[in-house]
Amino acid sequence: xxxxxxxxxxxxxxxxxxxxxxxxxxxxxxxxxxxxxxxxxxxxxxxxxxxxxxxxxxxxxxxxxxxxxxxxxxxxxxxxxxxxxxxxxxxxxxxxxxxxxxxxxxxxxxxxxxxxxxxxxxxxxxxxxxxxxxxxxxxxxxxxxxxxxxxxxxxxxxxxxxxxxxxxxxxxxxxxxxxxxxxxxxxxxxxxxxxxxxxxxxxxxxxxxxxxxxxxxxxxxxxxxxxxxxxxxxxxxxxxxxxxxxxxxxxxxxxxxxxxxxxxxxxxxxxxxxxxxxxxxxxxxxxxxxxxxxxxxxxxxxxxxxxxxxxxxxxxxxxxxxxxxxxxxxxxxxxxxxxxxxxxxxxxxxxxxxxxxxxxxxxxxxxxxxxxxxxxxxxxxxxxxxxxxxxxxxxxxxxxxxxxxxxxxxxxxxxxxxxxxxxxxxxxxxxx
Length: 432
Description:
Blueprint: H1 2-6, E1 11-18, H2 30-42, E2 46-54, H3 66-79, E3 83-86, H4 92-102, E4 105-108, H5 109-120, H6 124-138, H7 168-205, E5 210-215, H8 221-229, E6 246-253, E7 256-262, H9 272-277, H10 279-282, E8 290-296, H11 302-315, E9 323-328, E10 344-346, H12 355-366, E11 371-377, H13 382-391, E12 393-399, E13 403-409, H14 411-417
Parallel strand pairs: 1-2, 1-3, 3-4, 5-7, 5-8, 8-9, 9-10
Antiparallel strand pairs: 6-7, 11-13, 12-13
């Protein structure tokens, strides 16, 4: 049984093209091919060969050079590969030509990421978002991609009257079907978004601050959430392991509770239609009171990865939200000077190092001057108790000679009940 689970889904040859005609984000290099290899592993496949070509300009027909296509074809046979995956995005026609010439399925980076997202999405919203992105990706790639086109009745000459020719009617039907699916998915997503909006309004009414964990994929966000909340979100060493926003309540201090959310990992060259489709998951960021930007400082590329995340935060319209940089895996950091500075903290989510300092920083940033007080209210001030229930966090109420209340209150409310606070003395002015 074990052998079955360990058999890779696919044996893939990875191909990348570097060209001055391509933008920095579209180009492939050794780093991006390494990341592609990690993505293939995450999808359940295995890389059996890597080809990187440099060309003055991409070939309009085959993207890479014609000679390189032959070379890859031989490599596919030699390595018994079942798939060729490009690190660059291919046009629908290039994908068709390459699939024909290489004799195996050809995928590009976007298609691979969509496959992983489809495997990983758990909640209704996550699945809707992935399905929407898949259909948007599939639409321009329909022709030649669907095997049932060859089986279209019109090809035999015995098809129903009105068949417009081999495959065409089926293709048009499929196009219409996909457009309908896209519209329906967008409606469903709006519904989910409205429900989430109601939940969010309720949270804001309760004035529980929202903290969102963001970061490059595999930076240790889920491990951090587990370490802070003791929850059991799987924290595996795989890219894109968390797809749906996972939310927990965290007690930061005796005067502060927050809702803390883990978000999907960001990645370089994230396909545009995915950024669009995942806006609903990432829109949580817009409503956050604080972002924790988790950075894996054990990764030699951490500076570049942090920049990619910063750029995506800006693209999502969340750059005005306070952002605390959390330098994670600092137990594995081998540089001379740890990254430091204001609005930053070094931790190891795995060993627990620096977590209390992180909680202290969250408390400092979100502190509204809230204090925990013991109040002794006279019985004729029952209206103040009602107000405390409405506007404060009441821990306990005991009825003795007075109504004894332990509560966490904000400054404005404290001003109304301070006369009954235990051990409270009005601070003296300088001149007194």
